[in-house]
Amino acid sequence: MLELSRYAFIAAIAAVSAALALHVVAAIPWRGFSVLSLAGRGAMATEASPAFRATTGRFAITLGVNAFLFLTAALILRTIEAGHGPFSNMYEFSLAFAWGTLAIYLYFDARYRLPAMAFLVLPVALGLLLYATTLSDEIAPLVPALQNDLLLTIHVAVAILAYGAFTVAFGAAVLYLIRSHSEVDWLPSHSVLDEVTYRSVMVGFPMLALVIILGAVWAEIAWGAYWSWDPKETASLVTWLIYGGYLHARVMRGWSGDRSAWFVVGGFAATMFTYFGNYFFSGLHSYA
Amino acid sequence: MTSVTKRIGAPRTNLWESLGFARVWGFFRSVRLALVLILALAAVLLIGTILQQVPPSIRADGAAYEQWLEQARLKYGPWTDLLEHLDFFSVFQAPYFRALIALLVINIVVCTLNRWRSISITVFRSRVRMTDGFFQHARFNATFESPMPAPEAARRMKRSLSFARYRVNTETGAQSIALLADKNRFSVYGTFLTHLSIVLILAGAVIGGVFGFKDPQFVVAEDSTRGVAGTELSVRLEHFADEYYLDGRPKDFRSEVTLFKDGQEVKRATIRVNSPLRYDGITFHQSFYGQTAVMKVEDSGGRELYRGGVPLSWQTRDGGRPAGLLTLSEQGISVWVIGPRPGENDPLVRPGEMRLEIYNPDGDVDRLETLTQGEPKEIDGLTFTFERESRFTGLKVVKDPGVTIIWVACTLLVLGIVVLFYFPRRRAWALLTERPDGTTEVKLAMPSQRNLSPAGDFRRLRTRVGRVLLSTSATLRSKDGEGGDRA
Ligand code: HEM
Known about the structure:
By secondary structure, chain A is mainly α. Chain A has nine helices and no strands. Chain A is 73% helix and 0% strand.
């Protein structure tokens, strides 16, 4: 079972990489290449047809869906083998984070057709998966504080989706900023990018609130204190506050547009800081 | 009559103005201030996660704090004094942190009061009839031609829109019928719910701090009973057990206890890490555990002065041996009972032995002795026996009447956000004007919303209205074509 899970994991890495590569191929206006190759053999006069690019784009999306399915399989197989959800170490959590990112990204892509998002979101997912390859994938037993299955499962499942939503929001906000600062006609319009950013924060913000609250409920049960300024919970609160700042800035005169997009970039930095925080600070969460 | 009212009214306004209340109010109702406060709070909290924080108990103890700062100096070098001066090692207790929270609370309360009335008016007394200009300039608008007379068109629209969960009001005028369709109108209260929940959470924390208490070091030895200070409760530990996985990681800790109230047994329970014992608003959590020395002390006449477990819940300063205090108040003697250092060969205290440090009433060490299990030893006319080893459990005892408030507030907070985000308020206005030939022109308009574009809802609304009006032609307008081009 564990072997199968590993194969599915590797297949997911391959699929994400291939999806990213195909998105690049689909996005390149091939005329550029003919200029490059002038130095060599002579002009490559064939300009790839729009149909070719569209097909490649569709393949890229299909590969993204495949990556998501492989990851789903990897996580399910591992859960069956371990007897608990994927939340006992950074390996499991990284797979789950990548899974959440792909899930939310594919949803928004299906709804808004955003091929350009792939360039920001897929590298994050790929990075998480590659990071996971450096970690031990042994199944470890659960220490007593982690044995609260239901609460922990919901806590982590919601966290994964929230992080995924923030990754997608980050992608849309960066595209928004790129669009503000350069003339690129192949990006979606400002209003679409703003809507995608806002909608993904709409998904992530209440979810992160729920994650923090469930964490507090669990801490109250396990340690007798719902809040102890543990670095990890404090960092989550910082993240939440930054997105709260975004929600206000976005509807304020003089703060909508680029400035509020920067909040989303900052929020993603805080998300990453919270996620990798175990390397910076020690606390109750440091076993994770 | 008028002059009297004026005379009463005027000074009040002046007082309000002259004391600067209006300006203070204006300062606190601003969302810009909210943004500044949120960012400032985030910055302070970030400092609290990046820099090591000193536990409040150490901070309160001068010598211990000095020692703590010494080890901080190793890490932060010459910056240490500056960071200490700025309270950066204890940001969560710092005055500026509390001030920020207080400002946030005032900001939220003022903002809520300030908006409450105007929002309520839009909810309960929304205008039904709008001007032509409104229909022309609204962000999303459409015009329909319907073959039916205006009252019939209004009736059909009302039925169809109600079906789509809009609440419909109409106003019949001389030339036209005005219509207002309003969906999720209470959603706007979600903002208030969310903001006030934050205040409520903070209130819960304050209530817990004022009316609650916690004892993180409530130690009970096996087969002994201990009272909880400030309550009528006492706890007897029947048995403590710990289990480990094969690789040595802890698997389970559990304390089997009996709870007494005024000496009467009220509950038996097993306390585990994830299942605390709750009774009467008091919670007992499993926190730590350790070794107990069961001791007997008799005087020369054979009278029992002490018999029971001495929990070795302290550590000696010299090498971390477990130690516990046994007090014989009648004799004015305190005895530290010291066990062997765990996990290694301790040359001073061997397994099966206990070392005694006996202090006289002046607090000086009188005698140092070593006891072997089961062998009585006479020391200064008293007979000490180390009978056997057992366990103690370390519980955390908490009373926090704020917790319930906090859970309720958290629920409302999430609920408020969900209502606001996923059940957004939508309002559309229509104006139905009947022509002499019995056909009707219907204008439909939906204003933009600052947070989320209602484009999708408008499209659905337009399709629905066009259908029920049997519209022959519809002119669609919206400022950048967003309402029209994606249909
Ligand atoms: C930690 C503190 C705060 C949090 C978490 C918070 C959260 C929120 C949320 C989730 C929204 C909804 C945004 C949307 O509909 O897109 C909102 C809107 C709003 N908040 Fe706050 N808020 C906080 C503090 C404040 C304060 C102190 C004020 C006082 C000025 C304030 C004033 C407002 C206003 C006026 C809106 C409505 C914006 C609009 O819909 O046009 N908020 N807030």
